[in-house]
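Archive transcription. Copying these from loose printouts into the bound notebook so they stop getting lost. Printout 1 of 2:
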Amino acid sequence: MSEVKEKIIALQKYLDSRIIGQKELVKKLIITLLADGHALLEGAPGLAKTKAIKTLSECIQAQYNRIQFTPDLLPSDITGSDIYVAERGDFEFRKGPIFANMVLADEINRAPAKVQSALLEAMAERQVSVGGKQYRLPDLFLVLATQNPIEQEGTYNLPEAQLDRFLMYIKIDQPGADVERKILKLVRSEQLGVKEQDEAWKEFSKTVGKITIEDVISARREVLSMHVSESLEEYLVQLIVATRQPEKYDASLKSQILYGASPRATIALDKCAKINAWLDGRDFVTPEDIHAVIYDVLRHRIILSFEAQAEGITADDIITTLLKLVPLP
């Protein structure tokens, strides 16, 4: 195991100790980090979405900013703006909170279209445009957005083009009783002196020290060397094509899918499957690696027809059906 891989595995272990019962969330956040992508997290309040993102940022020598999205938010509240400096008689650009390595976009679906367009440019182009000038964002730039599925009043649907810029769309469920008890014990220990937390942090710090931006970039290079066989590559491509031409496998799916996944989905699925294999200690990708990440990669990229939505069919249902229909290599 390489030194950088040891650090990433130690990071995953530490996050698991702090974000109780959310091993899949932790793993997928690390996949997003190593894939140089962005993630959208959906779950009810109190499921440690914000804590997971903040804890991840604390373990990396990187700048972290949080933006609370509200209906009255302006694009300049995110990007920054030109400020007139009277002493110089000129304008000076003051950077907004988007200029960070890790940005938490909390309750992203509460902001209107103008704000989303500013965020979309940052996510897609890694730059912001203000006053006719472009300003580059850091090399390590990660947007982790959250949204609450319960309350829909005062929210806006995210544009499909922006959804497509998210590498993964991660859904979080409520914990079971056993996990709930562990969460309760962890919170109590934190309130009484953080002894257990200190021990976990000491072990992580002793093993890793601190993960740097250079470590993350090195890990990204390692992932690129993961082997994908030609037959598995063809399987991956056919899964994506099946979302656009489902009638090849089942004629009834044609009326359920309005638009299939874009080529970004192919690239995302390839990256995420490689990283999943890398984290699991293999140097090659298997069909199980594809299956482990395909729901998070595709659920926001398949646009359902009105008929399918009326029948209560979800994108996850479509993905499950396609996994059964597309033959394994």
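Printout 2 of 2:
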Amino acid sequence: MNASVAIQTLPEAANDEELIRIVDEVIAYIASTGLNYYVGPFETAIEGDYDELMDIVKECQHIAIRAGAPSVAAYIKVTYKPEGDVLTIEKKVTKHHQ
């Protein structure tokens, strides 16, 4: 695993319920990839191959639009280590969630 990303998808929505519905569709897509991920209150972290993660980041925007958002913004954080592994989600947060 040479990369991890954190993505915060911010769809335009008429109200909080609609916003949550659209974000839930994006998270369902992330879950469907089979990659390890962690949903936090502001963003979702995903681990995997850099190129695959970049495709997922791109698709998250398409998912939000197809779910009904007229526009979508996203904040993305990327850790990439071409040779070797990056720190895992487990190593970063597990000790804080016991």
